[in-house]
Amino acid sequence: MLWGVVSLVFLLFNVLPGDPARMMLGQRADLETVEMIRTELGLDRSTGLQYLRYLNDLSPLSVYNHSDPESYFFLDPVKYADKITLFKAGDQSFLLKAPYLGMSYQNRRTVTDMIADVLPNTFILALAAIMFAFAVGLFIGIVCAITKDSWFDRISILISTIGVSLPSFFTAILFGWFFAFVLSDLTHLNLTGNIYEIDDMGAGKVLQLKNIILPAITLGIRPLSIIIQLTRNAMLDVLSQDYIRTARAKGLRFSRIISKHALRNSLNPIVTAVSGWFASLMAGVVFVEYIFGWKGLGYMIVNALNQYDMPVVLGSVITIASIFVLINILVDFSYSLLDPRVRAS
Q: Which of 29, 63, 97 is the last residue of a domain?
């Protein structure tokens, strides 16, 4: 899957119109300077050669040629200073190294360093959003199942249907306008801001937790709606099982039946949804971060797209895809902890 993501994004950037060298120098740059920058960035080579070099840079196990600069196996000693040489065969070296995501066309920083700077902000935002969605959605879903067909159940289903239908960018604009502009005197919330801000009085970086409220709620609206409906449906299915009726007949407290028997056996689809949405939130924060000025991975991707900075976009997409794969693997292992039937099979 990671290979497919890399190949698709790389192909898209090479078929779309645009010249990174021209973007760096401006429209008035002379042709000689543009060609010099293209050579420096490796853009003067064929698309196939650029693709093979990028895969070789990205792979932890790589093959390099020490003598031929035109080969896609050519070793750049500056990029790969930290490496382990497994063995050599003539001019070819087989190396073990960290994946190299390239350098930004715009500021000449390594993409790895740029992602390391902003990824914690995106992770904090996504984690806050999914925790909000899970806690509130689980509670409302349980109440809806217990009070099936009541006015609370009907209203919750209606609101969750509307919530899952709203795109994040529209919700972000709406929430930002209403809570940070119309009701700013009551909420004291900022339309834009990060979790840390520079204090004007010289106190350095100051923690501003209020800046995460609007983007986290906005980002959590859609998973919240899904979790409400999944929890309600799963709980209704479990509450109709024979062992629940047996537990009631034995005189167990209703709260114990819900928490010990019904909820635990309903968690598998909910955990699947939460994990999938958390991975998706890491990728879907692009519009929310940009609208609220949250300096995270999504904000950086938008700026990189505007500047046609392909290494930054590719590196960010690969990072998001890797997180998605890792989370889904961890969820598969968590099933056996939540449901003994999975462990038995």
A: 97
The amino acid at 75: L
CATH number of residue 136's parent domain: 1.10.3720.10
CA distance 132 to 126: 10
Report, in this order, helix, strand and coil percent for the chain, each rounded to 5.
70, 10, 25
Could you say which of 72, 97, 122 is where a domain stops? 97
pTM (2 d.p.): 0.76
Q: Is the torsion defined by CA of 222, 223, 228, 231 positive or negative?
A: positive
Same domain, 93 and 117: no
Give the whole-angstrom CA distance, residue 213 versus residue 189.
8
Identify whether 9 is part of a domain.
no
Distances (CA, A) of 307 to 7, 21, 23, 318: 21, 10, 7, 19
How far, in Å, CA of 344 to CA of 126, rounded?
34
238 and 129 housed in the same domain: yes
Q: Which two structure tokens, joined as six digits, stand for 317?
A: 């997409």
Residues 20, 37: Cα–Cα separation, whole Å? 9
* Contact between 138 and 227 (Cβ < 8 Å): yes
Parent domain of 143: 111-344
CB 189 within 8 A of CB 179: yes
Q: Are residues 89 and 202 in the same domain?
A: no
Question: 165 and 70, same structural domain?
Answer: no
Residue 98: half-sphere exposure toward Cβ, Cα within 13 Å:
10
Tens-place pLDDT, residues 182-216: 888 888 888 887 777 776 666 667 777 888 888 88
Residue 1 lies in a domain: no
Tokens standing for 226? 């899904």
What are the tens digits of pLDDT across the range 219-271? 888 888 888 888 888 888 877 777 777 777 777 777 777 766 677 777 777 77
User: What is the identity of the amino acid at 25?
Assistant: L
